[in-house]
Write a structure and sequence with these properties.
Elements lengths: L1 H16 L3 H10 L2 H25 L14 E4 L2 E4 L1 H32 L3 H15 L3 H16 L3 H26 L3 H9 L4 H31 L11 H12 L2 H33 L1
Helix pairs in contact: 4-5, 4-7, 4-10, 5-7, 6-7, 7-9, 8-9, 9-11, 10-11
Length: 286
């Protein structure tokens, strides 16, 4: 193993020796997290400059000093939550419930599709094809105007159920791909050990499949958080709805939308960092 590693390192060093120094420097810089951070900051600064330039040409007057009071404000010595914080809390509630329900529904759908039951497999396949090939907005209207009145569900849970119904189709395929990627020999080892199919999933297959699922699942959960803004069309008072109401009251379109976008960015980037840390912990333990 040491000889193979040494040979690989020597071969890589030989290939690098043939490359121009500037190309080598460029390739190394692209792998640096600091370079990636600088590139992102430069891109964000460019977008901000373009927005400010457009606003200046429109004769727009910036009012950033009014934004903090819409997060928290002091009234008679007491700190009161502003509309943006209230909307953020609703968005976090929606995201939390949707993540839990989506992962559960996605796992059940994936297992049904992979099962030996023709009925279960057909139902799972039909559900996946129907939901993934129709727009989320149309599904939300169907849930709100048709299914919600029949079941007597309020708009908050209507949004959660609809988002779960939609996002679970993508999560199911991610979970199915992760399970399929586990070597067939692991199934045979579980059978040889006398494990039932349920115990094989629990103790052998899923522990190996989960690390493979984490990166695509993270991307899908981030999409779920961003897609949660669509519940504003049925007047759920989430962050986007509060932002729209705030713009109607103050006419601070640029400031409010930049702030709302920044809050969503903080949520999604924080989730990405958490999952990266979790992946590292899992790799260390295995």
């Amino acid at each position: 193993m040491a000889d193979a590693g040494t040979s690989t390192a020597l071969a890589q060093r030989g290939r690098n020796a043939k490359k121009p120094p500037l190309l080598l420097l460029w390739e190394r810089s692209q792998r640096s997290p600091w370079v990636a951070s600088v590139q992102f900051a430069a891109f964000a600064a460019l977008l901000l400059w373009l927005a400010m330039l457009g606003a200046e040409q429109m004769g727009y007057l910036w009012q950033w000093y009014n934004i903090p009071q819409h997060f928290f404000r002091e009234v008679d010595g007491e700190w009161i939550m502003g509309p943006l914080v209230k909307g953020l809390l609703v968005t976090l509630q929606i995201a939390a419930w949707c993540i839990i329900l989506t992962l559960a529904a996605g796992l059940v759908t994936a297992l049904l599709r992979m099962s030996d039951s023709l009925t279960g497999s057909a139902l799972a396949t039909g559900y996946l094809e129907l939901v993934r090939n129709t727009p989320l907005l149309v599904q939300l209207y169907l849930f709100y105007f048709v299914i919600s009145p029949i079941l007597g569900v309020d708009r908050f849970w209507t949004g959660i159920i609809c988002l779960t119904f939609y996002e679970a189709t993508f999560v199911a395929e991610i979970i199915r791909a992760g399970i399929i990627s586990v070597d067939r020999g692991q199934w045979e080892a579980a059978d040889a050990g006398g494990l039932t199919r349920r115990d094989a999933y629990r103790y052998v297959i899923l522990p190996q499949a989960v690390p493979l699922m984490l990166p695509p699942l993270t991307g899908q959960i981030i999409n779920l958080i961003k897609h949660s803004a669509i519940v504003s069309v049925i007047a759920v008072t989430d962050l986007t709805t509060e932002g729209r109401n705030l713009i109607a009251d103050t006419f601070m379109s640029f400031e409010v939308w930049f702030t709302v976008a920044g809050v969503y960015l903080v949520m999604t980037v924080s989730l990405s960092f958490f999952v990266t840390w979790l992946e590292h912990k899992i790799k260390v333990r295995t």
